[in-house]
Amino acid sequence: MKRLSRLRRHRATGPILLIFALFTIGTTFQVASAVDAEQTTTIAARSAAIDEGREIFLKGCSSCHGLNAEGGEIAPSLIGVGAASVDFQVATGRMPMGDMSVQAMRKTPVYNAEEVYALAMYVASLAPGPEIPTEEMLNYERDGSTAEGGELFRTNCAMCHNFAGQGGALTQGKYAPTVMGVEPVHIYEAMITGPQSMPVFSDKTITPEEKLSMIKWIKAAEAEPQLGGAALGRVGPVTEGLLVWTLGIGLLIGVAVWLAAKAR
């Protein structure tokens, strides 16, 4: 205690404490300023993206979805659909589309990645909705299981998309598209937004880890070599039987014609 008292009364104690206090205050201020600057930059960038997205929306989408995305006679409201829905529809080229009476098909996108992001940010600013999955959320190689993904796909998706993910026909002229060649982010977005006739698979129905397992199985099936020869669309025995039947009947007809011609 005596030693501590002597240190307190030392003439250098005051300046040292003052310097320490100033250093602490300065460091805290710098950290706080850096955080505020980063947040300000992020907010400014998001605001700029929203403004750009609104201009794109008014030019390319408002004629069907309404000036305020409230929907119209031929197109639904976009309020509350979230950024993920916009990214899926626009980045895969399904939107914008000229004829709203037919099913939207995957094609070359009209807008580039920056414009798609801006459009998604604008729609997301109208009301809360599913967000675009981040790269960390899509690490299916690390967090997914191929075996589990295959089981989940056959249970929840095969009745529409075919057991091999090649797609299939639905009622009323609709169809389930192939999932081969689709980007992981768009597969994930489709599951959480439910485009077209597809149901929404919430995290309570299929967890994020299970979604990654399904994506991992799809990518494994996509890369699987065709060791047995021509795959014939991998849609099952109907196609294979039809091919054999057609070739068999054709061969028999050819033999019959040849025998008839030879008999003359």
Query: What is the alpha-carbon Rg in Å?
Result: 30 Å
CATH superfamily of the largest domain: Cytochrome c-like domain
Count the domains. 2
Please mark out the parts with pLDDT under 50 across 5 or more consecutive residues, or reply none: none
EC number: 7.1.1.8
Subunit structure: The cytochrome bc1 complex is composed of a cytochrome b (QcrB), the Rieske iron-sulfur protein (QcrA) and a diheme cytochrome c (QcrC) subunit.
Membrane topology: Multi-pass membrane protein
InterPro entries: bc1_cytC-su (IPR009152), Cyt_c-like_dom (IPR009056), Cyt_c-like_dom_sf (IPR036909), Cytochrome_c_Oxidase_Subunit (IPR050597)
Question: Would you write up a description of this structure?
Answer:
By secondary structure, the chain is mainly α. It has two domains: 31-132, Orthogonal Bundle (Cytochrome Bc1 Complex, Chain D, domain 2), CATH 1.10.760; 133-224, Cytochrome c-like domain (Cytochrome Bc1 Complex, Chain D, domain 2). Helix content is 59%, strand content 2%. It contains eleven helices and two strands; from the N terminus they run ααααααααββααα. The chain has helices spanning 2-9, 13-60, 62-65, 82-91, 113-126, 140-143, 146-156, 158-161, 184-193, 208-222, 237-263, and strands spanning 168-169, 175-176. A two-stranded antiparallel ribbon has the order 1-2. β1 and β2 (175-176) form a beta hairpin. α4 runs antiparallel to α5 (113-126), α7 crosses α10 (208-222) and α9 packs across α10. The mean pLDDT is 84.
